[in-house]
């Protein structure tokens, strides 16, 4: 039996647990600072057992995955440094930045414990275990940054364990990871939010609020990631400061260049600017289909009354709204539970929300 501890059972910890369960003979213990998250994870079948005692969660573990927010990883690593662990245990993390994690990864090898940084390069703007998915990492890159004293054979062992994620596991240096991922993932979040904030300030000053009404495809496409979790992105930026600072300075120069081209009405220069971008963008490798399609889930509080589930499904059926999946999450004391209903499209979610709210149900999309 392979014992796995997942520290931080949210979107990524939950999705990793669901993938790793596909290995033969694994037992997964979840640790989280929020007990409710562990209850939810158990009710969704994500973990086998859950505890809010960290030392207990890791004592027997062969693999320990740190899946907490980036800002909490150093604290967790420090705790593990002085906690009894199984000899031969492998510690890995899923944080979006790697240099600051690897700076704290020393001091394990002398105890026969190995540290390998990790970053599965797939996610969602949603968070929490409810949004976790066993195929989240399919076809995505999964970067490993082994500590200097971690033998290759141990990295290979972790690679094997990760096989059911169907991710493309690659080994990289932490500094290189932060530079590249800073450019293609972290900095774009700054750009998206900066643009939204700029438009929001124009919109506030506009009585008719045409900005909101006319917000079309282009604005929506480039700003999708501005809906991500602000706390998570704060942590990521704080842990990749040199790269973010350099990119912000470099972008200032690009903006200067564009501003000058526009001021001079330099048509060929402007066209060249767009053409250069198009050439690079069009040559990006095709994104392979994984499980990254958006989730169309709706949560409905269901009161403790007989026949309530049938009433909900009948209401939706009468409106010809198709359901692709339905499950009951029993998590709260004051109600029988929460119904999670999956649909094919966001349009169906909107229709269903309307119908169910009209009938007095408490309905929400968990962001
Ligand atoms: N969301 C995404 O798209 C991706 C996130 N990541 C990284 O994975 C990590 C987890 O992110 P998500 O799962 O999205 O976040 P999440 O918010 O869905 O889950 C984080 C979980 O960690 C728990 N937690 C908070 N403090 C903790 C602590 N001190 N010890 C143990 N658990 C603690 C929270 O209660 C929560 O259940 C982060 O480091 C993030 O940078 C990596 C790839 C993609
Ligand atoms: O939705 C998106 O495009 C993302 O940005 C997902 C994501 C978020 C954080 C990561 O560390 C890796 C991937």
TrEMBL record:
It catalyses: prephenate + NAD(+) = 3-(4-hydroxyphenyl)pyruvate + CO2 + NADH. Its EC number is 1.3.1.12. The lineage of its organism: Bacteria, Bacillati, Bacillota, Bacilli, Bacillales. NCBIfam families: PRK06545.1-5. It is an enzyme of class 1 (oxidoreductase). Pfam families: ACT (PF01842), PDH_C (PF20463), PDH_N (PF02153). This is Prephenate dehydrogenase. Residues 2-292 form the Prephenate/arogenate dehydrogenase domain. Residues 297-367 form the ACT domain. InterPro entries: 6-PGluconate_DH-like_C_sf, ACT-like_dom_sf, ACT_dom, NAD(P)-bd_dom_sf, PDH_C, PDH_N, Preph/Arog_dehydrog, Prephen_DH. Keywords: Amino-acid biosynthesis, Aromatic amino acid biosynthesis, NAD, Oxidoreductase, Tyrosine biosynthesis. One of its GO terms (molecular function) is prephenate dehydrogenase (NADP+) activity.
């Amino acid at each position: 039996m392979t014992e796995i501890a997942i520290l931080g059972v949210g979107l990524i910890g939950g999705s990793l647990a669901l993938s790793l369960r596909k290995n033969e003979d694994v037992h997964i213990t979840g640790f989280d600072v929020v007990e409710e998250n562990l209850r939810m994870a158990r009710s969704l079948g994500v973990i086998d057992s859950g505890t809010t005692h960290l030392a207990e969660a890791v004592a027997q573990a062969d693999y320990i995955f740190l899946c907490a927010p980036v800002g909490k990883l150093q604290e967790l690593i420090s705790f593990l440094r002085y906690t009894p662990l199984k000899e031969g245990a492998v510690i890995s993390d899923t944080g979006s930045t790697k240099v600051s994690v690897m700076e704290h990864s020393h001091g394990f090898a002398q105890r026969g414990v190995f540290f390998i940084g990790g970053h599965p390069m797939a996610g969602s703007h949603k968070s929490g275990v409810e949004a976790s998915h066993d195929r989240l990492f399919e076809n995505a890159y999964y970067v490993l940054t082994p500590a200097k004293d971690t033998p290759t054979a141990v990295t290979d062992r972790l690679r094997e364990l990760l096989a059911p994620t169907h991710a493309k596991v690659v080994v990289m240096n932490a500094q290189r990871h932060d530079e590249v991922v800073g450019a293609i993932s972290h900095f774009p979040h700054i750009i998206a939010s900066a643009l939204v904030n700029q438009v929001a300030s124009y919109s506030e000053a506009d009585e008719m609020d045409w900005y909101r009404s006319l917000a079309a495809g282009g604005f929506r496409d480039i700003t999708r990631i501005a809906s991500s979790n602000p706390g998570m992105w704060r942590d990521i930026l704080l842990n990749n400061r040199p790269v973010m600072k350099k990119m912000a300075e470099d972008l200032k120069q690009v903006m200067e260049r564009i501003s000058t081209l526009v001021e001079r009405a330099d048509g060929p220069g402007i066209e060249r600017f767009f053409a250069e971008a198009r050439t690079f963008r069009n040559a990006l490798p095709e994104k392979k289909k994984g499980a990254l399609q958006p989730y169309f889930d709706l949560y409905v509080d269901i009161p403790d009354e007989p026949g309530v589930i049938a009433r909900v499904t009948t209401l939706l059926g009468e409106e010809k709204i198709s359901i692709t999946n339905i499950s009951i999450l029993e998590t709260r004391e004051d109600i029988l539970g929460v119904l999670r209903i999956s649909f094919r499209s966001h349009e169906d979610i909107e229709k269903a929300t309307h119908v169910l709210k009209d009938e007095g149900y408490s309905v929400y999309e968990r962001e």
